[in-house]
């Protein structure tokens, strides 16, 4: 018997080369376990509270709605890259962050967590600090958190943590292309950005 409102994974994807189009993932804590492998999420709706997109996948989220149903502080993602040599990471492109709570974009679940938000609308729920080190200040040097040309009231960078990277066009380019997940050979047809 489960606890009402407790942790429950709606989907766990551990295989390589998986794509999801127009899917709805509803949960509470830990909604989507993007475990490992290369994945593509296009036009999906992902809802939850704490760490509701988590894992060590190398994934592109394109045109997705990310909806928080939290009451207080929450974390949209917790990416699990352990070393800089690991190629995993989450890239959110042209997404829309909506809902309730005070949402951090990600927290440093693992030492070298890597998450990028590009051209994403961030609602008022996004915490002005944006990112969280999970109480490990030494991770400021090892995480890779980036933002690129995001918009909306939650996209203001005035109070962002000092270890977030405000990406240049050149730095953002690899995260906004299907080459991020090396999809040219397995995802056909290629989506439009």
From TrEMBL:
Protein name listed in UniProt: Pectinesterase
Family of this protein: Belongs to the pectinesterase family.
Keywords: Aspartyl esterase, Hydrolase
Superkingdom of the organism of origin: Eukaryota
Entry annotation: catalytic residues: 51
Pathway involvement of the protein, from the record: Glycan metabolism; pectin degradation; 2-dehydro-3-deoxy-D-gluconate from pectin: step 1/5
Cross-referenced Gene3D superfamilies: Single-stranded right-handed beta-helix, Pectin lyase-like (2.160.20.10)
Enzyme category, top tier: hydrolase
Catalytic activity, EC: 3.1.1.11
SUPFAM superfamilies the record matches: Pectin lyase-like
Catalytic activity annotation: [(1->4)-alpha-D-galacturonosyl methyl ester](n) + n H2O = [(1->4)-alpha-D-galacturonosyl](n) + n methanol + n H(+)
Organism of this sequence: Platanthera guangdongensis
Domain Pectinesterase catalytic: 2-183
């Amino acid at each position: 018997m489960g606890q009402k409102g407790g942790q429950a994974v709606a989907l766990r994807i551990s295989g390589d080369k998986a794509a999801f189009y127009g899917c709805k993932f509803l949960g509470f804590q830990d909604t989507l376990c993007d475990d490992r492998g290369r994945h593509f999420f296009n036009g999906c709706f992902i809802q939850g509270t704490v760490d509701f997109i988590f894992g060590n996948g190398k994934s592109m989220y394109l045109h997705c709605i990310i909806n928080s149903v939290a009451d207080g502080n929450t974390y949209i993602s917790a990416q699990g890259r352990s070393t800089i040599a690991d190629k995993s990471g989450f890239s959110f492109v042209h997404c829309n962050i909506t809902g309730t709570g005070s949402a951090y974009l990600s927290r440093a679940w693992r030492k070298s967590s890597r998450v990028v938000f590009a051209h994403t609308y961030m609602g008022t729920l996004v915490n002005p600090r944006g990112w969280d080190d999970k109480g490990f200040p030494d991770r400021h040097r090892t995480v890779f958190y980036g933002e690129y040309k995001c918009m909306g009231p939650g996209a203001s960078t005035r109070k962002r943590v000092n270890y977030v990277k405000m990406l240049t066009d050149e730095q953002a380019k690899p995260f906004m292309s299907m080459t991020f997940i090396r999809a040219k050979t397995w995802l056909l047809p290629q989506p439009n950005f």
